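ok trying this again, last paste got cut off
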Amino acid sequence: MSSSNPGKPIPADPAAAASDQPALEVDPQSIGDGDYGDEMNSYTTSLKSSITDYQYENGRRYHAFRAGSYPLPNDDREAERLDIFHHAMTLSLGGKLHLAPVGEHPMRVLDIGTGTGIWAIQMGDEYPSADILGVDLSPTQPTFIPLNVSFEVDDVESPWTFSAPFDYIHCRYMSASIGDWPRLFSQTFKHLKPGGWAEFHDFDFHFYSDDKSVETKGEKIVAWCDKILEGYDKLGRESTPGPKLEGWAKEAGFENITNKVLKYPMGIWPKDKNYKEQGAFNYLQLMNGFEGLSLASLTRAYNMSPADVYEFIAEARNDLKRPDLHILYNG
């Protein structure tokens, strides 16, 4: 997706440019002789705690920053699932990390909701001249990363404060993560360089099949899927953004929009080698992710007990194991 936004000229007087904002008051407790010293150490320690004092719920770990706004865990089990799903998603793109024509030397790249950082790290390796920034609610990315890759804890639903626009903004698998998608698109548009590209890759996770095997024999896994998606929606997080991406892009002012729907199989039933490999990774990520995908959605939105959630999961997991159910969803 391309933006025709011409960008704004840099004002000669930055204070005048912010004249529509109220003046900032000085905290009288911060006034004194000398430098910040112990006061700054105490304050920054408190800030760090607000990010890393994770929340624990039903045996799973969740983010601390903006606690409760994202209904999936951020623990090691979830990180492993996300990395497995990353492989399925890159396979769906023919082994590519993106489809947008970013050129051989993109300069500034933003990865929205970077998760484990695996996409940003691989982009850093592929484009060593680029400056790759990944943002997420959780600081769970690795520390040994390419020199041109960095990560920040941030909430992309808050006003963006990046110092410079981007050549390319990437947003992938933010289902159940965002409450106001039109605003996210608007902020993305405003923070692209003229002629820059944005790429949104998201999903409609409602299960179906080409041969109607899921519709006729997969009632347990369909019921599970529909229930957790409804739960995300009840919690104010859009569960099914995929079909709406093109409309939101048009509303935000993007031009040269390309919309592509991809099939994602679940399991090794496809004859095609690439789809079979995708399906294997997809099967693994869901088999390992049933609990993490379900607990917050069902206990928070429906007040289900953890025991009832596990029973519900067990029935769906049995359906997933069946090779006669040719499960698909769209991305």
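PB: full thing came through this time. The first helix runs from residue 14 to 17.
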